[in-house]
Every structure is written in structure tokens, then in C-alpha cells.
Design brief:
This protein is an alpha+beta fold. The protein is built from 26 helices and 17 strands. The radius of gyration is 24 Å and the shape is globular.
Length: 606
């Protein structure tokens, strides 16, 4: 999807935006003198998009200026008097790419396919993509040769004629992890107070004129919706309407969530009586519904395309009511819960007795064995590739999926292709990103890329009029949780203890006390039962030459059959889903229309 495009005509920059998205407020343009900024998304707050874009332009207009990137979900192009700047916020929800040749950038766009039309495919990208579902957003590679991704928190500087001057690396927030217990470290009550304030600020920044909140009946989404309702009731948030959006299942295991959802709705409306419940019947929705459309249309392969039917149904309901912002509870599990990779820090610093004691507490609180906890949070982060190989060797008994983890080469990916195009190097890079030298810090970076189905939100934005927004992934919320010592955040048997304490005065006791939610396995199993034969036919009928070059198709089809019978784990199913999405994406590559949306010129030169 192309929201903006920058090109050069005779060495003069010309900038266009998608007119429809500008009218919807999804794209904001500001100008002053010989300066122009185009922001896709929002800077500062959803309600003050123009002010945020103007502040971004003024902050970076001065020669050599390099201020810290502000909070928001945005990609931006700034055309200044002496330079051009391309940038994305740290969380990188909004894509931005540039085409480069010989040190000169020839075009910039939010669409990689529009820049890469007619160019060859970059096979290293597909190895990177297939290492895991976090691979795409933090890799410079794109599917198209010569087209590069601007990374989250990165600023690319060009001359006014497009010469590449430099790429300022992404800013990595520093974690505060004192090695000894300090007297002034917050207790649970103080930590809860800090988190409550940070989360209120994050919700307030994301509220628009008509805000929808996803309400599932869990602690996370209910907390976000309650804070939005309180802000509106107290007049502290932006004036506007509130929609409570939920999917209702009347059959199957997910029907057990309905009483919690009803109670959450009632409590939220107690604070905001005018809030409008929008309950969407989703009993007929399955994973993999209309899979060729959801997997084949995006700009890049979409690893979570299998789950798109459920989210699309909810998005459409919010769009019909004119919502310009949709808030979710995504991200709370890794961000607001205690950080189990703290055990790795204790082990590598020689605090083995303390590590063992806390691991026992963790095992008791999560109803797991001690070795299972130590293996997952100490051994695997230390030797991720070796641990996966051992697990695959021990568990594989003639099946394709058993033992397949995050990084190991799936058996359907041809070994020759993997060797030729850097799969091992890609898996090493991915494991270092997920765990890093200090896994307890890397957890927060990695969580950003698995928390929500943002590629779907991006693709649907023109028809919906909004992007998904995630308060738990706000930099202020993450910074608040990162600086807490593990002992403060972890309470055995009480996950997300700080969040529960922070919301204790608002959450209904039934929701505040629940520790288990029904997973969406039902949708996945139903989808494979319903569409398994179609998925196998898609693979066997695939005509794009790269499919046969990459995959042993019959082994991939066997993996689909195994998943239908429940063989494997969530890790192996993720690998399967990514591969199926790639097959469909390649099939639609030549069919996908490259016709550009109606665009309007912003500047015809400087």
C-alpha cells in the first residue's frame, strides 16, 4: 500500500501522498517556507496529528540536528532546505522503504512492491523471513533486490538530490538493572502506581475523536478500556465517543469467555454510560478463511495471515461506526508480566543459589517443572541453536513438526537453498535478536514484533480509517516495567502482579483474579479441518519457480496433515503458517496490481 512516494525529476525532489488517506487523517502534511513533512500515522498523540507533524519538522529542520525521536506510530519524510530525512518511530508499525543504486536513492515509498516492480527477488530475504515470525520488521532486507527497509528508530539522511549521506542507527533504550537491592527501589504498591500513570498516559495519547477498544474479558484489554472510559468521564481525555468492540462465540470452548466479556462491558459502561457496545458474532469465522486474499495481497509475506479473518471482522465493525482509533491489550503478556529471563542474568553472574530458588518459585507459580523453567529461561537463551537441535533430535520420531522450534530449519525448506542463501546466518541473527547478550533486556525488543497483527492493520487502513494501537507497547510503559527489579514484579501464582495491583480499584474481581484465558486453538483447529485440503492443493498447484526452488512441496503438505492431527507445537505451527503464506504471496506476486492509488502532489520541487 502506497501512502506516500518521493521521487526525483531532474535532481529535484517531488513528493506525493495518497489523497484518500490524507482526507482520513492517516497521512498528515505540514509545510513552512522551503520545508515539508509528510507523516504517515501520528506523532505525539492521535488527536494532535498536525501539531505532532509540525513539531517533528521544526525539531529536525536545523542543520545537523538529531533530536530523539518522539513517541508515536509513524513513518515520516522531511524535505528540508539542505537535506531530506526518512524516519520511523522505534516500534516501526508503519513501513517505509527506499530504492538505492550506486549510493543514490532513486525513490522512497511505504510500499516495497511499488519500488521493486520489475526488479529481481532477494533470496536472502526469504531465508530471513522463514527463521521466525519476528524476522521481517528488524531486517533491512526486503523481497526485492535493491529495495531497503528503514528500521525502527532509524533516520536516513539524503542530500536534496538523493545522495545517501548516512543512516543513524536505531536507539536502544537502556534497561536499569541494579545488581544489588537498593533501598529506594519501589515495592509492589509504588511500582503499580508508576505503571498506572504510564498506562493512563499511553491510552490518552492513542484516543481519537471516536475510539474503539477491543474487549475480550481478559485483564489486559479490560484495563485499557477502563482507563479510556475513566479518562473520558473525568474530562482528562479528548472529547469523543467510545466503542466497546468484542467478538462473541456462542459455541465451542471460546464460549466460556462470554461471561467475562459481559462483566467487563458492564463495568466499563459504569464509568462511561454512553459507551456503545459492538458485539460481533464470530462463530462462523475460522483461521485460513479466504487465505489467498489475506496472504496474497500484502506488500510482503504476512506470517499471521491465517488469523486475519477474525481481526478483519472486528475491524470492519469498528470502521462502520466511524472509529478513528482502535486500542488493544496486545503486548501485555511480555511487557506487564514478570520477566522470566531474569533467571538467565542470575545464572551468568554466578548467583546460582538465588537462581535455583527463584526458578522453583517460578515453577510452582506456573505449574511447571523446575527443569522446564531452567531449560526455557537459562539454557535455551544461552545456546539457542544448539538447544533446538537437541530438542529436534530427541523429539522427532518420523514426523515433520515434532521438535521444530523458532530457529531450526524446517524440513520442507530445501537444504541447498538454505546453504546458498544464508539460512544459518539468518537463524543466528534471529536468535541474537530474540535473546541477545542480555536476554532479560532483549525480551522487550522482541515482544514488540509478536504482540499484534499490525501488517493486517496497515493493509486495511484505507478502508477502516484507523491503525491498530497498543498502549502496552508505549515506550513509557516499557521503560516503567524495564526498570523494576524482578523481585518486585514476580509473585508466584499471580501473573502480571504489578498490572493487577495498578488496576485493583477498577477491574472487577472476577477479571482481576483470573490467571488463565481460553486460547484461540479452536479457530486454528477448525481452520485446518475446513481448509487443510485447500492449503495442500495451493502448495501442489503453485507455479512460481521460487516455490519449488525453496520448498520440498510434499514435505510441506505432510506438515499440513500433521498439524490437522494436532502434531507439533505453537512454534512449529508458526513456521508452517509462515511458509504457507509465502507460497500464496509468491503466487499472487505477478497478479497483484501495481496500479498506484490516486495521489496528490505535496511539493513539486524546492
Amino acid at each position: 500500500m502506497e501512502a506516500l512516494r518521493l521521487e526525483w525529476d531532474g535532481g529535484v525532489p517531488k513528493l506525493w501522498t495518497a489523497g484518500a488517506m490524507e482526507r482520513q487523517g492517516l497521512v498528515t502534511t505540514v509545510s513552512s517556507r522551503a520545508r515539508t513533512a509528510v507523516v504517515v500515522g501520528w506523532v505525539g498523540s492521535v488527536r494532535e496529528r498536525v501539531a505532532g507533524a509540525r513539531g517533528l519538522l521544526e525539531g529536525w529542520d536545523r542543520p545537523q540536528a538529531a533530536p530523539r525521536l518522539p513517541t508515536g506510530d509513524y513513518a515520516a519524510v522531511l524535505v528540508c532546505r539542505d537535506r531530506i530525512l526518512l524516519m520511523r518511530d522505534e516500534h516501526a508499525r508503519i513501513p517505509l522503504f527506499f530504492r538505492e543504486s550506486g549510493g543514490r536513492v532513486t525513490a522512497v515509498s511505504t510500499s516495497a512492491s511499488h519500488l521493486g516492480g520489475g526488479s529481481g527477488l532477494e533470496r536472502r530475504y526469504f531465508c530471513r523471513y522463514l527463521t521466525g515470525n519476528m524476522a521481517q520488521p528488524h531486517s533491512e532486507l526486503t523481497p526485492f533486490a535493491g529495495v531497503h527497509r528503514i528500521l525502527g528508530g532509524e533516520v536516513v539522511e539524503l542530500s536534496t538530490t538523493g545522495q545517501l549521506r548516512g543512516r543513524m542507527p536505531r536507539h536502544v533504550r537502556q534497561a536499569h538493572e541494579p545488581s544489588v537491592q537498593a533501598a529506594d527501589e519501589p515495592d509492589l504498591g509504588g511500582a503499580a502506581k508508576d505503571l498506572r500513570l504510564a498506562l493512563e498516559n499511553a491510552v490518552g495519547r492513542r484516543m481519537g475523536r471516536m475510539t474503539a477498544c477491543h474487549v475480550s474479558g481478559g485483564t489486559d484489554s479490560t484495563s485499557v478500556a477502563l482507563l479510556a472510559a475513566r479518562l473520558l468521564a473525568a474530562g482528562q481525555g479528548p472529547p469523543g465517543g467510545l466503542v466497546l468492540l468484542a467478538g462473541r462465540f456462542e459455541r465451542g470452548e471460546l464460549a466460556a469467555e462470554q461471561p467475562y466479556m459481559d462483566e467487563a462491558m458492564a463495568e466499563i459502561r459504569r464509568y462511561a454510560p454512553a459507551a456503545r457496545p459492538m458485539i460481533v458474532d464470530v462463530d462462523d469465522v475460522s483461521d485460513f478463511d479466504d487465505f489467498p486474499h489475506h496472504a496474497g495481497d500484502p506488500d510482503e509475506p504476512h506470517a499471521h495471515a491465517f488469523r486475519a479473518p477474525f481481526w478483519s471482522r472486528l475491524h470492519a465493525a469498528a470502521a462502520q461506526l466511524g472509529c478513528d482509533s482502535l486500542l488493544t491489550g496486545c503486548g501485555a503478556d511480555p511487557i506487564a508480566d514478570a520477566n522470566p529471563l531474569h533467571l538467565h542474568r542470575l545464572a551468568r553472574t554466578g548467583q546460582l543459589r538465588q537462581m535455583t530458588r527463584q526458578a522453583r518459585d517460578w515453577a510452582a507459580g506456573s505449574e511447571r517443572g523446575l527443569w522446564e523453567v531452567v531449560s526455557a529461561h537459562v539454557v535455551q537463551p544461552a545456546l539457542p541453536l544448539a538447544a533446538e537441535r537437541v530438542t529436534a533430535f530427541v523429539r522427532r520420531r518420523g514426523t515433520v513438526l515434532d521438535g521444530l522450534g523458532n530457529f531450526t530449519r524446517p524440513r520442507w525448506l530445501r537444504s541447498g537453498f538454505a546453504r546458498a542463501h544464508g539460512y544459518r546466518e539468518a537463524s543466528i541473527a534471529e536468535s541474537r535478536f530474540v535473546f541477545g547478550r542480555k536476554p532479560e533486556q532483549s525480551l522487550y525488543e522482541a515482544a514488540n514484533y509478536i504482540a499484534a497483527p499490525d501488517p493486517l492493520s496497515w493493509r486495511r487502513a484505507p478502508q477502516d480509517g484507523f491503525f491498530l494501537s497498543h498502549p502496552f507497547l508505549d515506550p513509557e510503559v516499557i521503560a516503567t516495567m524495564r526498570r523494576l527489579p524482578a523481585e518486585t514484579a514476580f509473585h508466584p501464582g499471580r501473573p502480571k502482579a504489578v498490572l493487577r495491583e495498578a488496576m485493583a480499584d477498577l477491574l472487577p474481581s472476577r477479571i482481576g483474579g483470573r490467571v488463565v484465558k481460553v486460547p484461540f486453538n479452536q479457530l486454528y483447529a477448525r481452520g485446518l479441518r475446513t481448509h487443510g485440503d485447500e492449503l495442500i492443493d495451493l502448495c501442489r498447484s503453485a507455479k512460481h519457480p521460487l516455490t519449488a526452488e525453496m520448498f520440498d512441496v510434499e514435505t510441506l503438505c505432510r506438515a499440513v496433515r500433521e498439524a490437522q492431527f494436532g502434531i507439533g507445537s505453537s512454534y512449529s505451527w508458526d513456521r508452517l503458517n509462515s511458509s504457507l503464506a509465502l507460497v500464496v504471496w509468491l503466487e499472487r506476486l505477478d497478479q497483484r496490481s501495481r496500479a498506484r492509488r490516486a495521489a496528490m502532489p505535496v511539493i513539486a520541487g524546492t
